[in-house]
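Worked example (supplementary).
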Amino acid sequence: MFLQQLINGIAQGSLFALIAISFSLVWGLLRMVNFAMGELYMLGAYAGWLVVMHVTPNLGVALFAGFMVGWIVGWLIEKVAFKAMRGVPHIASLVCTIGFSFFLKETASTLFGAETKSMPSYYSQTAFTIAEANISWLQVLMVAVAIIMMVLLQLLFYRTKVGLAVRAVALDYRTASLMGMKVDRVTSLAFSLSGALVGFVGVLAAIYYNAVNAGMGFVPAIKGFTAAVFGGITSIPGAILGGYLLGAIENLSVKFMSSGYRDFVSFLILIIFLLFRPNGILGKKTKL
Amino acid sequence: MKKKLISLISTVLLVSSGFAAWAAGTPNSSIIHIALTAPITGDYAEYGNNFKHSVEMAIDEINANGGVLNKKFELSVGDSKGDPKESAMLAQKWTSDSTIVAQIGDFTSTCCMAAQPIYNRAGMIQLSPTASHTKFASGSKWSFSVYGSQYWEQPVMAALAVDKLKFKNMALLYINNDWGVDTQKSFKENFEKRGGKIVATESYFQGETDFNAVLTKLKEFKPDALFLATMYNDGALISKQREKMSWNLPVIGASALYSPQLIQLGGTAVNGIYSNVSFFAKDPDPRIQAYVSTFEKKFGNTPNFAAALAYDCVYILADAIKRAGSVDRNAVRDALASSKDFKGLAGSITFTAERNAIKTYKPVQVINGEFQLVE
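After joint prediction of all chains, the assembly is encoded as:
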């Protein structure tokens, strides 16, 4: 059953990894954290749920809906919490994202009701069985999606002009803007992309756990942020690695200890690790 | 300018607080003001709304019949969101209002126990429809549990597990809060007393959605059956994830699983689950049928056990006020404590010395997407 727990951990780790990428994206550009990430995840899940229940049972459409809702709300948050507050102390933007977090959560619970909604299963049949451990098609899909997303983002950042622009802005946004680059547009794009990514993950999570509710984003967002710091928040491959490691550690700690110690173990490991390597696994030293 | 502003604001504050004190302090002799604390939003919203609807319904009925001691009931409702902090804050609010005679609520044992010291200090009745922690009602002379306690519920489930279903080795999964710990402990004791063996025990924290890891671990111990000390929403999620793992085994659980929502959320995955009830909506008793049909007509859903218990709370409180002959908090408390054989919808109520109602529980099972009494 060690293998089964490892598989569970990798599947859960895919969700953490994708959320971690979103945190890295925002951090890389603005050196800031978007605390409303969990609510973007939740809104994505609701969008997917609405599509599945009322429009079409097509999973692709549901995932796309989550992606789009995340994109739009992410864009909006950037406009209000970051663009409108450029030049004022960073802390104002942070508090503003906390405000968004509560606002979006309460809005969802007022609009859709506070109770948990049921999401139908997709691809839950067993794909492979290795030594009594079952791997479902959905788990395969989640890992595949995480890896594809990572590859696409790497290509976007290192092979395209837009990516070059994002990197230039991340490096030094003042110089970049002096060079005539449209800093606002680049920031807006990266922010929307990070929102879209968590919205997309929200739909995946809703299908994986068969549940949608207004409070569903809080824990995954904290874990995703943790995974990003663990892997090195400046690096996207690091974020992915951090996500998978956190997922695996959590699930294996259930195997070897009582499940009540699940978060205790993973966060203890994290704290000790950061004492020795404060920049995370793949993070580079940065001056703040 | 600034000084003027400050003095203006302070004058406004002073005057308005004077008004507030005047409004709150005037005892209105024609009403009986009671408070309801319930999780109207949040994870337990279904229970909270059942509380609210039922209490409002009971109060409307009593008022329509002339009230008690020629006074009409008036209700203030507070939303605790299932959060112990909010519940304690509401307790502060209610106890500082001198017009409030008694408080009904909260839903979870954890919330009730967080607010308990506040009601105890202020001397206000804390009448919980559903708190079932074995140490809740005994914790303060002002606390009452209409539900009774796990101390009486779990022997019924243990008897079902051992005598009828012949389970020998069971695994336990519980939510790690006051209620969950107490419920699983109570079940374990009773199950072991009857010769059963608990082979594995695992827990999770409120808000968890990933049960794959705990279920995988429990499966390793190859139990005959699984006991769930969880609410309906987690129970449904656990069942769905268990079904996905293709781990098929009998499941029994605490009465908190008894809710139409369990079936709505869990679908086919919850078929076969055993639970127990003190109130059953399909009970042929005409009083229960009258209540259920009025409730359904008014609110569009079938009342669950929490609704029936909240309804009983209003009536037993009204009865105590009638017997006390006044709305004095002390007199009402003493009258409530001496309630005997009060005929509620969810069984008759007699409080023990520790203010727990003694109840009888009937096992139920989900068969083809519906709860049915187990013969």
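Two points are worth noting when inspecting this output. The interface with chain A takes residues 40-43, 45-46, 176, 202-205, 207-210, 212-214, 216-217, 219-220, 233, 236-237, 240-241, 244-246, 261, 264-267 of chain B (CB under 8 Å). Residues 29-147+286-349 of chain B form a domain with the Rossmann fold fold (CATH 3.40.50.2300).
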